[in-house]
Design goal:
- The structure is a homodimer of 306-residue chains.
- With 306 residues, chain A is α/β, with parallel strands linked by helices.
- Chain A has two domains: 174 residues, Rossmann fold, CATH 3.40.50.720; 125 residues, N-(1-d-carboxylethyl)-l-norvaline Dehydrogenase, domain 2, CATH 1.10.1040.
- Chain A contains twelve helices and ten strands.
- In chain A, helix 3 links the parallel strand 6 and strand 7.
- At the A-B interface, helix 11 and helix 12 of A face helix 11 and helix 12 of B.
Chain lengths: 306, 306
């Protein structure tokens, strides 16, 4: 089955999955900003360890009104742009379309579900290492997987459809019963590694693992996330923490997305990655002093950056 | 001693103190936005239980570049506009000027101190009930007092100077050794009353005190603020909580500033009043589940408002 798909945002995650879905024979249009001209002219270049693939998109626009309407609207915007969701997403959705957020952290599914219209919302959390190294050039250094879960209402059938679509495009897509659970398991990586990368002044993940004090802070942050997840009824085991540390060791000098934003002077996704998890964890009764301290340090770094 | 004073922001707090300082013989200029035209034409009208006073300002502008430079720059902007501080405040400060924040909540003094230049920063927390009822018309229903504290560096002499200036204008100004302590004592009111007013769907303070469940939540929130203040080394006693409840009972159907912003569809000062206190309290080891829950409810209300 080939679908008409709109990808909102053509950064690392948006570009990568738009490209794979187009390579699999879907009609994929892209809503982009700065990279629109390059994408229109050259398409996307997807690189991983094994291959380099160039793929043309069905359409690339900066104005959603010029793209038409789609069966699936996937959102790969930075969460800091979520105040523009209504304006960007509503014009793209056919009646009955599926909305799929591929964004980082908490609050994104709620923001999509808050749009007018009864479209079902699916959340996909991307456990991957993808960087956009130049306009239209996306590099994937860890194939990883996407965990999909229903965000709003009885959308398990939509989750299955998204998973099947992604698998057909060569993506390892796992279906999950609980978005809450997937979010905390993903945050178990993002909270310590995106956070300490900034708090330590701009360091890659290998430096965090290689420094005894930073590594210990990462471990304690992961334990706090684990306790918050349990308090919210979505527990995960120590094996998940162990696996995150192993996977990270294999990443080398990886720059988490927030570090790239921080170093480039761009807005950092503070609320979805640190503030909302702190609020929700503490509200559920978890003690999260390490996370609160980390958040204070991140804010101070961002304020000093000006 | 008469000073050249700039007031940045002509809302309730800015208008009230700009008016009193001008009545006391200081040369007071005002940086305003929507109300500038009215203020220029009619000046300010200050009303309290006893009197109605009209006062002209030395200058009213929307562009700080047109105002000149001042000995004291007082900031009464909503904290949600703090990203504009550099642009608004720097052009107004003489070398060696004092910067005085009269804003609500945490993070404002740090934001002012983060501006270029070595100007000392004083913080004034306003324990008052002031509303702007029309452009240029400011009503004060509780004389209250200002607590002043040094925010950055050895500025105790500046604190004394600000206190003396305000007293000379008829304001009860108290000097305090610790900004941390003043902030938590003020938040002991703002966190529960500004917050529950929104979380309960838009209710005045009398409704919070008159509803057993809301009153109990207010009390528990105050106890959490008390424990956070103590964990941060700035303890206050039960008498402070008792006094806040008494004062509030005397306010009648008061609309906290955040409730007014909420009902008017304007941005609410979420970070300074709830998010930063949560982060700092939890980082210091306090348990603040009630505050975290309240914050979640406020975010949900604001999201639904659209």
């Amino acid at each position: 089955m080939s679908l008409r798909i709109a990808m909102v945002g053509a950064g690392a995650v948006g570009g990568w999955y738009a490209g794979l879905l187009a390579l699999a024979g879907n009609e994929v249009a892209c809503l982009a900003r700065g990279d629109a001209e390059t994408l229109r002219r050259d398409g996307l270049l997807l690189r991983d360890g094994r291959s380099e693939r160039r793929v043309r998109l069905a359409a690339v626009e900066t104005d959603p009104g010029r793209l038409g309407r789609f069966d699936l609207v996937a959102v790969a915007l930075k969460a800091t742009a979520n105040h523009r969701l209504a304006e960007l997403v509503e014009p793209l959705a056919k009646p009955g379309a599926t909305l799929l957020t591929l964004q980082n952290g908490m609050g994104n599914a709620e923001a999509l579900a808050g749009l007018r219209g009864p479209e079902p919302v699916v959340a996909g959390l991307c456990f991957v290492c993808i960087n956009r190294t130049a306009p239209g050039v996306i590099e994937n250094s860890l194939p990883g997987h996407i965990r999909l879960a229903a965000a709003e209402g009885p959308t398990q059938a939509r989750v299955r459809a998204c998973a099947s679509l992604l698998r057909h495009a060569g993506v390892e897509a796992r279906e999950d019963d609980s978005l809450e659970s997937v979010l905390w398991r993903k945050l178990c990586w993002n909270i310590p590694f995106n956070g300490l990368a900034i708090a330590a002044g701009g360091v890659t993940t290998d430096r965090i693992l290689g420094d005894a004090a930073l590594r210990e802070r990462a471990r304690r942050l992961m334990l706090e996330v684990q306790s918050a997840a349990a308090a919210r009824g979505a527990p995960f085991g120590d094996d998940h923490i162990r696996r995150q540390l192993e996977v990270t060791a294999g990443m080398g000098a990886y720059r988490p997305s927030s570090l790239i934003d921080y170093l480039a002077g761009r807005e950092v996704e503070v609320d979805p990655i640190w503030t909302l998890p702190l609020e929700r964890g503490v509200a559920a009764g978890a003690a999260m002093p390490e996370l609160a301290r980390l958040l204070g340090e991140i804010r101070a770094r961002l304020a000093r950056r000006g």
